[in-house]
UniProtKB/TrEMBL annotation:
PROSITE patterns (alphabetical): AA_TRANSFER_CLASS_3
Keyword terms, alphabetized: Aminotransferase, Pyridoxal phosphate, Transferase
Name of the protein: Aminotransferase class III-fold pyridoxal phosphate-dependent enzyme
GO molecular function: pyridoxal phosphate binding; transaminase activity
Family to which this protein belongs: Belongs to the class-III pyridoxal-phosphate-dependent aminotransferase family.
Organism: Polyangium spumosum
Cofactor or coenzyme needed: pyridoxal 5'-phosphate
KW Transferase (keyword) present: yes
Highest rank taxon of the organism: Bacteria
InterPro entries, sorted: Aminotrans_3 (IPR005814), Aminotrans_3_PPA_site (IPR049704), PyrdxlP-dep_Trfase (IPR015424), PyrdxlP-dep_Trfase_major (IPR015421), PyrdxlP-dep_Trfase_small (IPR015422)
Keyword Transferase: yes
A Pfam family per the record: Aminotran_3
Length: 430
């Protein structure tokens, strides 16, 4: 077996094999519609044929696939594994609390204590309700907003989940639902004015703006302040979808990071470091109205996820987790951007340092083509990335980030030699 450096993936000795992954994929195509449970985990979303499909386990920021290959993981459970794999706080809590049961017939104490821990961490929060998925939380948020305001239409920004009101233009969804949702982009500064104008013009019929921050760029605090003021001037609730950004930009999320206040927020992924849990949280004046609605889920009170949530929130609160993410993300961004510039590659790491976006071009087709080649080249060097936004976790180390930077250098050199960048727009280098 090839020797390894502690904390780094074991080098591939001779040939990178994915035989077991490919065999499982063939079987999954016969058994599972879409191969897996999340669109974002489908093999076509990475580099089909040159990227592992199935993982077997992990420790910290390292994972191994079913063929025994090892990688530094920047996919991090699509952002949910904020602390890394098998973090002691998560494993210990599950082992200690499992004997109490998983789901009881009446409420349990952990519903109260986990809620208290959550509202203590989220700015402006006085009450919260738990669900299981991010889409559960965002859907509950819009139902609450419609109830509170008496208005039916909503504005959505970014990806807010797979439920009908968000995906009104996809197969299987009644076409009439598009009449109730304005989907607005916020990928460029030029998108800001049309959004504000829409709220000004249509505010009398809009219940809420549900904002998931873009990952390709950092919006300004001033814009968010103006957006919030515009919403309130027209009786529109300003709701932050922090399913991804929560517990990454700051302990209190985007509200704390930007110094703004939302009417309430939606949370998931990092709320329990990989255990299935989501929530909405906000001031009592708004949140208390949720009791008047048919918003109910059996598994919202599942005890292990709530126990882990409480333990994980303590990790965020009592350690330098947030500062480490920011520092490691900055190191990664500056290192990769330096290698790309020196190699004349049209790659730029942009966005928030804890949520790095590897951008090759503003043109989607060009970016997708180059990003697929890049993540494939990185995988065979022991690094797992997504084709757009990736994630730092609390288990990453400086040595792993430096390894990633050098792997990016080698991958970009390989791509340049193959002619991958010829004719590609250089916009991402600016």
């Amino acid at each position: 077996m090839t020797s390894r450096t502690p904390g780094l993936p074991r080098p591939i000795a001779v040939e990178w094999k994915l035989d077991r992954s490919n065999a499982l994929l063939a079987e999954a195509r016969r058994l599972i519609p879409g191969v897996t449970q999340s669109l974002m985990k489908r093999p076509e979303m990475y580099a089909l044929g040159s990227f592992p499909v199935y993982l077997d386990g992990g420790e910290g920021a390292l994972v191994r696939d079913v063929d025994g290959n090892e990688y530094i993981d920047y996919i991090c459970g699509l952002g949910a594994n904020t602390l890394g794999h098998n973090h002691p706080a998560v494993v210990r809590t599950i082992r200690e609390r499992l004997e109490k049961g998983v789901l009881h017939s009446l409420p349990t104490e952990i519903e109260v204590t986990a809620t208290r821990a959550l509202v203590d961490l989220i700015p402006g929060a006085e009450m919260a309700r738990f669900f299981k998925t991010g889409a559960d939380a965002t859907s509950a948020a819009l139902r609450l907003a419609r109830h509170v305001t008496g208005k039916e239409k909503v504005v959505t920004i970014g990806y807010n989940g797979w439920h009908d009101q968000f995906m009104f233009d996809t197969p299987g969804v009644p076409a009439v639902l598009r009449e109730y949702t304005y989907r607005m982009p916020l990928m460029a500064e030029a998108d800001e004015r049309p959004l504000l104008d829409l709220i000004t013009d249509k505010g009398s019929e809009i219940a809420a703006v549900l904002l998931s921050l873009p990952y390709k760029r950092c919006v300004s605090a001033e814009f968010l302040r103006v957006l919030r003021e515009t919403c309130h001037a027209h009786g529109v609730l300003f709701v932050l979808d922090e399913v991804v950004t929560g517990f990454r930009l700051a302990r209190g999320g985007a509200q704390e990071f930007y110094g703004i206040s939302a009417d309430f927020v939606c949370l998931s992924k990092g709320i329990a470091a990989g255990m299935p849990l989501s929530a909405i949280a906000g001031p009592r004046e708004v949140m208390s109205r949720l009791a008047e609605l048919q918003v109910s889920t059996t598994f919202g009170g599942e005890m292990l996820s709530l126990e882990v949530c409480k333990a994980v929130l303590a990790e965020y609160r009592d350690t330098d987790y947030i500062e480490r993410l920011a520092a490691l993300g900055k190191r990664l961004r500056e290192g990769v951007n330096d290698k790309a510039a020196k190699n004349g590659a049209p790659l730029r790491v942009v966005g928030y340092d804890s949520i790095p976006f590897f951008l090759f071009a503003d043109d989607l087709a060009t970016h997708t083509r180059l990003a697929a080649q890049f993540v494939g080249a990185m995988a065979k060097r022991g690094v797992l990335l997504r084709r757009d936004v990736s994630f730092l976790c609390g288990a990453h180390t400086e040595a792993q980030v430096d390894f990633t930077i050098e792997a990016a250098h080698d991958a970009l050199v390989e791509m340049a030699r193959s002619g991958a960048f010829e004719g590609s727009p250089a916009g991402a280098r600016s």
